Amino acid sequence: MAEDLWGKDPYSNMWILNTTEKIKNLTWWWWWWIFFIDNPSDPKHPRQFMILWSTKNCNRIKVMDHLWTPKKSIKVMMADGGKALSANEQNANTLGENRMEFNGMTAAWWFDGKKMIDPYILEESDFYTKWLGDEGILVPESKEGNIYTFEGNPKKYKVHIKFKKGEFLFEMEPWNEFMSKHVYNVRHYTKKMGYNILKIRGMKLSGFIEENGKKEDISGSAYFQRLMVNAPAVPWYWGLFHIEDGSYIDYMFPFIGPQMFRNTEKPRSLLDWGDIKLSKSVEYYVAETGKLYNLKFGSVKKEFSKENLPIFIVEGHDKENKVNLKMRLEAYSRAYWRFEQKNSIKSRIFFYNEYPVVMTDFSFVDKESRLKKSLEDLGKVMGNCEHSWGRLF
Questions:
Q1: Is 393 exposed, middle or buried (0-12, 13-18, 19+ CB in 10 A)?
Q2: 89-96: which pairs have CB atoms within 8 A and are 24 or more residues apart?
Q3: 214, exposed or middle or buried, with CB in 10 Å at 0-12, 13-18, 19+?
Q4: Fewer Cβ neighbours under 10 Å: the N or C end of the chain?
């Protein structure tokens, strides 16, 4: 039953957004996939493709050079006539089709193995989702006739992109129980502010890419999140890594400090200091043992390569310092998004940077179980790091 996947919160369903707790100028919703694609011509530097579909509860926001203003409010039409359905009701086969409509944007970047193209897609449109239970589809109604659809169910999802630059078909199927479980979490900072997230840590990827008249079958892995942020956007460091045996690593370090006042996309800044971490999390799932380590202490340090790309040194450990993880992550490309939101007189600017990275060093020790891991033990690793700065509210 889909209820086991989604849980009892009706907003844990993939295809519906929570519009009952929205806050003016703060609430932001998006569906987000990142695809790690094997690169036969340069295996150490996998290709990567990111796509998101998004909308925001504000009067206006500038994304790169595109000024977006909402053309319609989010409208949810449930099969029973409008009430919020429970998980059981959503999955009852006797129900008709549910539908949601909104206005927003589709955005994507594409590292093709040699160069980063960002933005690769940046298009405003009306959207709709349709679903019955856990089966559904998200469709941007492109005025140009372009296709940027996301559809499926937990057994198989598809993202299909077709426009003048090429055609991409990404097909995602379960990897292992831990990686492909649909995890839904809700967190409140205050009575109103907080976030909810539905994530899939990893799925196996197949499909094809067709560009410049050449069609190629692809393989790799994919990560997904659908997020509702109901709070001011503050800077963060985040990263995720897929390991070939089905193991997984991620980290998250949101913070406040001088970087909130950075107002350019330049990678280096005199304001890059004094971070005050709001929380610390390093997560490591070891497929070999089936154990998940949640490390709540750690740090992120940063250096720069001769190409002026960041090198992240991430460390995590438990309270007793019995479990330690450390990794060195060297970026080989960069994509960034610039957001500007004007409230009253003053504009707020936020820069969201995404970096395909190579893991060049890794060590892990669990003193109690005597488990040790080095970079050589991991095998193939594909991952991406994020560093954002500025503020948006």
A1: middle
A2: 90/2, 90/6, 90/10, 90/13, 90/131, 90/133, 91/1, 91/2, 91/3, 91/133, 91/134, 92/133, 93/132, 93/133, 95/132, 96/132
A3: exposed
A4: N
Q: HSE on the CB side for 286, CA within 13 Å?
A: 15
pLDDT per residue over 19-39, tens digit each? 988 999 999 999 999 999 999
Q: How far is CA 281 from the centre of its chain?
A: 16
Q: Do residues 227 and 195 touch, judged by C-beta distance below 8 A?
A: yes
Model confidence at 87, pLDDT cuts 50, 70, 90, reads very low
pLDDT tens digits for range 121-147: 999 999 999 999 999 999 999 999 999
- Read off the pLDDT of each residue in 172-180 and give the average, rounded to a whole number: 98
Q: Domains of the chain: which residue ranges?
A: 1-231, 232-393
Whole-angstrom CA distances from 222 to 151, 232, 333 are 15, 28, 18
Q: What are phi and psi of 136, to 5 degrees?
A: -165, 180
The 10 Å CB-count burial string (b at 16+, else e) for 150-169 is bbbebeebebebbbeebebb
What number of other Cβ atoms are within 10 A of residue 34's Cβ? 21
Prediction pTM value? 0.94
CATH of domain 232-393: 2.40.370
Cα 317 to Cα 139: distance, rounded to the nearest angstrom: 42
Taking 3-state DSSP, the helix, strand and coil percentages for the chain, each rounded to the nearest 5, stand at 5, 60, 35
Which pLDDT does position 97 carry in this prediction?
A: 83
Alpha carbons within 13 A on the beta-carbon side of 268: 8
Side chain identity at residue 244, one-letter code: E
